[in-house]
TrEMBL record:
It comes from Nocardiopsis tropica. The lineage of its organism: Bacteria, Bacillati, Actinomycetota, Actinomycetes, Streptosporangiales. Catalyzes the reversible hydration of carbon dioxide to form bicarbonate. Belongs to the beta-class carbonic anhydrase family. Signal peptide: none annotated. It catalyses: hydrogencarbonate + H(+) = CO2 + H2O. Gene3D superfamilies: Carbonic anhydrase, STAS domain. Residues 778-788 have a biased composition (Low complexity). This is carbonic anhydrase. InterPro entries: Carbonic_anhydrase, Carbonic_anhydrase_CS, Carbonic_anhydrase_sf, SLC26A/SulP_dom, SLC26A/SulP_fam, STAS_dom_sf.
């Protein structure tokens, strides 16, 4: 089965095509035709405006729009992406035209299309996605600012300068001295563009259904025409023969520059098209984009557009988004929109020639401003890549497109290198030993930091050096080895424990791996078996023993070797941090929700995380575990953890413990009777839970049950004595399955509050009034016990 652009299967499989002539097929055709008309209305003014901004003949924008719709739609790999002249290529094309002239630029477009055809044929499309999105979005934002600054001068009745800096410097003069009719046309266009989509709906009349670009340019054109304003308007060729202005060969000494231009157009057009296609895929449920085929389609469109005298073509997000929102399902919409543009220009060219140039310039000002996406900046800021975006943006505006992209790409590489070589070194003294822990990739870049920390270790100290590194180069090995030799020479001792990979040991005895090593096994080690792909040889092991064996095999291949040193130390004894009492429910994994490891938790699991009161006849296993943990292991903490959607709590609410149990459920009924006091505490007996939604009642009971079991624990003398002496703390915890969030009991308020972040204090009951109350509530005979 074919994968989508992200390398995984789409959420929903594409629907099978409806039989020709069926009702579903006719409905799909109607939707595509309607969407094509909407995109056609958007594309005409945009194509003309981009041609204006590029300094190309206006008909070149129309040719590119027609070819992009028909050719890319027929050959490309996206269901709904619309191709045509792209604003992101405007600066490149304008520079090429200024340097080589228009007809040589057509040749560059044709050759760039051939390059894209080759790249698509050799299936290299995914490589284009290696460019950082921060650089791409920063480049587009820089292009947008440059376009807006240049076209703002046209709106004001002047002419754009040679650079963005010059446009900024000349802007005050333009504002102060240009007040022609062109300014009014531009202001009207921009005002409508900004306000149209914000207008409220009036019943079934929704203004946003009509494209804002069409309304803005159409209104400005109508006002200028009716008012007889003297403004420059669009001029198109008289015939198709006059329209052709195709490619010519350059001068002999220009081929080097031509090659650079071809590579630039091919790269930028490809990256922009593929990223736009992936972005549009998020808006529809049809077949995902086939990247190599789409790249091939873009190459075909650029080859034809260059041959016919059109602008370079790329997939464009604005027209593609309009296409999806208008209801498009198949490439028919894209193809038809190109047909409508061709017919409109062929038969209604006189209407197009009424459009004022100032209206197109104002449209470009609005588009340029919108290319600076605050949403992209916020998203990149969350991923700590906003600096790359901003540096690329200002580089493009102040220095030029290629210079800005190069600087942004270099910064992106530096940021990535810094992340890949990030190193954390921590030290801690305990049990008369110095523990040094190193996390990350240990390269020569991290040697100064590591050496600084190691120099702070006192002479003669006993040192445990834990290396959690996925890479160690020779410089890092030499630094550690030299320090170890010197430290041991002065009477100290160093025990090196390599958790991830035996880099140090292999560098000492043979040769280390040549590159980073990832842990073996599956990345989703925490997921259930059913959510993980198992190797083909274990796929047949569907029985429980087979799954357990496959899991053990995965553990041996990915984890056992790294745990051998740790488990060797733990084999001599255990010193857990807490007695953890929780439910036997398979969905609750204590080590997962507490990020604990071997030796951290002494765990007791039973149905309903119950702690029977001391002296209760029947099962004494929980009492034995409590006494062993407190008396022998001397744990400093006991945690009782309940959870949502607990089957035991649901059975209590349904009074299962009061029903006469048969031979198959007698043990369960007797055990659930230990939870009757939890019902009392939750208010079920007094009717406090009556009328509540089932989920809310279950939550209250599960949380009340945790508090009740904490009270029962205080009924054990060994627990009470250590709590009162301050050597033992009791804590309540609640795990919400739906949100996968842990909540802690706040004894001051009696409420369970979610853990918000690292460093939040864990609330623990203290000896005193709370402890006395818990003991009083847990004393035998405090309430009656129902039997099953």
């Amino acid at each position: 089965m074919r994968n989508d652009a992200q390398g995984v299967q789409p959420d929903a499989p594409p629907a099978t095509a409806a039989p020709p002539g069926s009702h579903k097929d006719r409905k799909g055709v109607a939707a595509d035709v309607g969407a094509s008309l909407v995109v056609f209305l958007v594309a005409v003014p945009l194509s003309l405006g981009i041609a204006v901004a590029s300094g190309a003949p206006l008909i070149a924008g129309i040719i590119a729009a027609v070819v992009g719709g028909i050719v890319a739609g027929l050959v490309g790999g996206s269901m709904v992406q619309v191709s045509g002249p792209a604003a992101g290529l405007t600066i490149i094309v304008a520079d090429l035209i200024a340097t080589y002239g228009w007809r040589v630029t057509c040749l560059i477009t044709l050759l760039a299309g051939l390059v894209q055809l080759v790249l698509g044929a050799v299936r290299i499309a995914r490589a284009a996605l290696a460019v950082s999105p921060a650089v791409v979005h920063g480049m587009l934002a820089g292009v947008g600012v440059t376009i807006a600054l240049a076209q703002l001068h046209v709106v004001l009745g002047g002419a754009p300068q040679s650079s963005a800096v010059a446009n900024i410097a000349d802007l005050p003069h333009q504002i102060a001295h240009n007040h022609s009719a062109a300014v009014a046309v531009g202001v009207i266009t921009i005002a409508i563009m900004f306000t149209w989509n914000k207008l409220p709906s009036f019943g079934r009349l929704r203004p946003a259904v009509v494209p804002a670009a069409l309304v803005a340019v159409g209104t400005a054109t109508a006002i200028a025409t009716v008012g007889g304003w003297r403004v420059e308007t669009v001029s198109l060729p008289d015939s198709l023969a006059d329209a052709w202005n195709g490619p010519v060969l350059p001068a002999a000494g220009q081929w080097h520059g031509i090659a650079v231009g071809v590579a630039t157009v091919a790269l930028v057009a490809s990256v922009e098209s593929l990223l736009a296609g992936i972005a549009v895929d998020r808006l529809h449920n049809g077949r995902r984009i086939m990247l190599n085929r789409e790249l091939f389609g873009q190459g075909a469109a650029n080859t034809v557009s260059g041959a016919l005298g059109g602008l370079p073509v790329a997939g464009v997000i604005v027209r593609s988004t309009a296409n999806v929102r208008a209801g498009a399902h198949t490439p028919r919409s894209t193809i038809l929109h190109g047909v409508w543009i061709l017919l409109f220009v062929a038969f209604f060219a006189h209407v197009v020639e009424l459009i004022p140039m100032a209206a197109l310039a104002a449209l470009l000002v609005f588009i340029g401003v919108q290319m600076v996406s605050i949403a992209h900046l916020r998203n990149l800021r969350r991923h700590h890549e906003a600096s790359v975006y901003l540096v690329t943006l200002f580089g493009v505006v102040l220095l030029g497109l290629m210079e800005g992209v190069f600087i942004g790409f270099a910064l992106a590489m530096i940021v990535s290198l810094r992340r890949l070589t990030k190193l954390t070194v921590t030290t801690e003294e305990r049990d008369n030993r110095v523990h040094v822990t190193v996390h990350g990739s240990l390269t020569f870049l991290g040697v100064p930091r590591l050496a600084h920390v190691l120099r702070t270790v006192p002479e003669g100290a006993q040192v445990d050096l834990d290396l959690h590194v996925d890479f160690m180069d020779h410089a890092a090995f030499e630094a550690i080895h030299a320090w170890r030799v010197d430290h041991e020479r002065t009477g100290g001792a160093v025990d090196i424990d390599e958790v991830h990979e035996r880099w140090y040991a292999r560098s000492s005895t043979s040769s280390a791996p040549a590159s980073k090593t990832a842990p073996g096994g599956l990345a989703r080690w925490w997921a259930p078996w059913g959510m993980r792909r198992v190797p083909e040889e274990t796929a047949r092991e569907v029985n429980p023993l087979g799954l357990l064996t496959a899991g053990a095999r995965e553990y041996h291949s990915s984890t056992a070797d790294r745990m051998r040193s740790l488990m060797g130390r733990l084999s001599h004894g255990q010193h857990p941090t807490a007695l953890f009492i929780t439910c036997a429910d398979s969905r609750v994994v204590p080590n997962l929700i507490t990020s604990s490891g071997p030796g951290d938790l002494f765990t007791v699991r039973n149905v309903g995380n119950l702690v029977p009161r001391r002296g209760t006849p029947g099962d004494v296993s929980v009492g034995a575990a409590v006494e062993y943990a407190v008396n022998v292991l001397r744990v400093p903490s006991i945690v009782v953890c309940g959870h949502s959607h607990c089957g035991a709590m649901k059975a209590l609410l349904e009074k299962a413990h009061q029903e006469p149990g048969d031979a198959q459920t007698s043990h369960m009924c007797r055990w659930l009777a230990n939870g009757h006091e939890s019902l009392v505490r939750a208010g079920e007996v007094s009717g406090a839970l009556a009328g509540l939604p089932a989920a809310e009642a279950l939550r209250r009971l599960a949380q009340a049950n945790v508090e009740e079991q904490l009270g029962n624990l205080m009924g054990y003398p060994v627990v009470r004595e250590r709590v009162e002496s301050g050597d033992l703390e009791l804590s309540g915890m609640y795990y919400d399955l739906e949100t996968a969030r842990v909540h802690l009991l706040d004894t001051a308020t009696g409420e369970f509050r979610p853990v918000q972040g690292v460093g939040d204090p864990v609330p623990h009951p203290r000896p005193g009034a709370d402890g006395d109350q818990l003991l009083e509530e847990s004393s035998p005979g405090a309430s009656s016990r129902s039997s099953c």
